[in-house]
Amino acid sequence: MYRIHHTEGLILDGVAFGEANKFLSVFTKDYGLIRASAQGLRRDASRLRYNLQDLTYAHIDLVFGRTGWRIVGASEIKNFAFLLLGCHDSWNICLRTTRLLRRLLHGEEKNKPLYDDVLRAFMFLLSPPTDKKKIFYIEMIVVMRILHHLGYLGDNALLIPYLSGTIEEGIYLPSVETIKSLALREINKSLQATQL
After folding, report:
1. Are 65 and 20 in contact (CB under 8 A)?
2. CB contact set of 47 (below 8 Å; sequence gap of 6+)
3. Which of 23, 88, 125, 140 lies most in the core, judged by the most C-beta atoms within 10 Å?
4. pLDDT beyond 80 at 195
């Protein structure tokens, strides 16, 4: 008998396999990035189908067996894909963030600060500021925080205020416009250093 693990997570994406199954990348609160199969997920009658769509934040029940993780239950908390349908900028930030996470996270390693920052950013994007510059700053700060949590971003003293506190506070700091060039330079340097 397999032990059921209960956690919450964000569905980053999925790949179909077999007749009706799907292999999902899930950024979880307790296990980091995992890849898990969901049997029969693509069937119309599947109870899990709507709870495990891309960009869904959900409570997830998992078992670990011979072939790895398998999702046996899920209940949606928020479906960001659905909630952001009319907000093109926020939708794109979420998609780019999930791609970056898939690119940088390897293996199963719990990273609660990173998980909390990503989730908080997605929640904030549900009612983003109307100023296009502020929306750009959200993405810039989220990317800096992801790189910082994973050890890729250097320790530039000018960026420290944006790596602590909340993302909402960061985009309203008076100096955010002045550090934009520095932040983008550091982000690009860090991404090159990953060699991924």
Report:
1. no
2. none
3. 125
4. no
Query: 24 and 13 in contact (C-beta within 8 Å)?
Result: yes
CB 25 within 8 A of CB 33: yes
Q: What gap in Å lies between CA 93 and CA 143, rounded to an integer?
A: 10
Q: What Cα–Cα distance (Å) separates residue 164 from each residue in 24, 46, 122, 156?
A: 31, 41, 17, 13
More confident residue, 119 or 172: 119
CB under 8 A, 24+ apart: contacts of 149-152: 149/111, 149/113, 149/114, 149/117, 150/104, 150/105, 150/111, 150/114, 152/104, 152/190, 152/191, 152/193, 152/194
Number of folded domains that form the chain: 2
Does residue 14 sit in the same domain as residue 70?
yes
* DSSP-derived 3-state class of residue 172: coil
CA dist., res. 40 & res. 88, Å (int) = 31
| Neighbouring C-beta atoms of residue 170, cutoff 10 Å | 21
- Which of 2-6, 40-44, 55-59, 122-126 shows the lowest mean pLDDT across its residues? 40-44
Same domain, 76 and 92: no
Q: Indicate whether 100 and 56 sit together in one domain.
A: no
Domain that holds residue 69: 4-80
Closest residue by Cα to residue 97 from 18, 186, 25: 25
